[in-house]
Every structure is written in C-alpha cells, then in structure tokens.
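Justification of computing resources. Each target in the renewal requires a structure prediction run like the one illustrated here; the chain below, 199 residues long, is used simply to show the kind of job we budget for.
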Amino acid sequence: MFKVFVITYSMYGHINKMAESIVEGLQKAGAEVGRYQVAETLSDEILGKMHAPPKPDIPIITADKLPEADGYLFGFPTRFGNTPAQMKAFFDSTGGLWQKGALAGKPAGIFFSTASQHGGQEATVLTTLPFLAHHGVIFVPFGSGHPNLFDNSEVIGGSPWGAGTIANGDGSRQPSQKELEIAVAQGENFAKIVKKLAA
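Resulting structure tokens:
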C-alpha cells in the first residue's frame, strides 16, 4: 500500500469539492489517502465579513506529518496568480524538514481554483514550484490526460498543470461535472506514478 496526502486550503468550498474527486481517483488506483486542510490565518471577524462558510471537519495538517506520505496533492485557490497566504504559511513551516531533506524525491501535484478563465490557473502552479524545488520534491503535472481539456463547447477549468475550476468573482459557480471528471483523472494518474516511485 502507498499513501497520498490531499492537502487543501478552501475558503468558499470549491477546492474541497474538487478534492473529493481527486480522492476518488486516488482510491480507484489503489492509494491510501490522508485528507487534510491547512490552518486558517484570517480571524473569524474577517472571514465573516468575507461571507466565508464554516470550515469543514477536516483535520488540520502540521509539517511533521508530511514524511508519513509517499506523495502529495495540494489544492488551493489563486490569489492574484499566486499561492494563497494560508498555504504559504504552511509551506514556510517546513524548514525543519528541508534541513533534513525529509521530502526529497517525493512526488507532488497541484489542483486549483480561479475566479475567471484568465485568473492565473497556470501561474498559480508556477509560483508554487520553488517550494517543491527547494525540498527536492518531484512535480508531477497532469498532462493532457483527459478529453475534457480539449472541449471548447463550455467554460472548463484545468490544464496540463492540473485539475482546476472557475468559481466566478463572487464564488457563485460550482465545479462542473467535466471539471470533476478531470480531477478524478488527475488523482488516478498521480496515484499510478506514486505507486511506481514508492515501489
């Protein structure tokens, strides 16, 4: 058995919905899955003013747990084409693991959410790669591994960099069936790679 952690930050729930499909794909390919979220850095007062719903009952991960997994799929929304502060704070807490090389050689992938088609889906991944590189973590892109990525009949998030959804600026659009199918495929594809590396 090989273990994959799905680690997310989701303010309005779009990424958590995508994560359910990611987990489905991982499990289809035989992975044992650990499901976690990173700690919130905003106060309850600020979250209330942003009309953010309550956080789901998903365990909060701490850096010391990361070495237990064989691979990681990180999911988060963009913040101006960049990693959100909550995920960055978690990454910044991994210095002790970096000193030991504890994550070197482990694979990781990314899935994401933006407000619009041109809101930085690929840039969000690109700006996260330095964290992986400094740890020696192997970035695993999704590739063009699903026909929905070539469907121009409707708005569909995602790219060869990973599964994605488009939420609208007010968060009113939920992940579509086609976006969720891409997420399942990314989970399944990633699990197969982790299994090979873990062997």
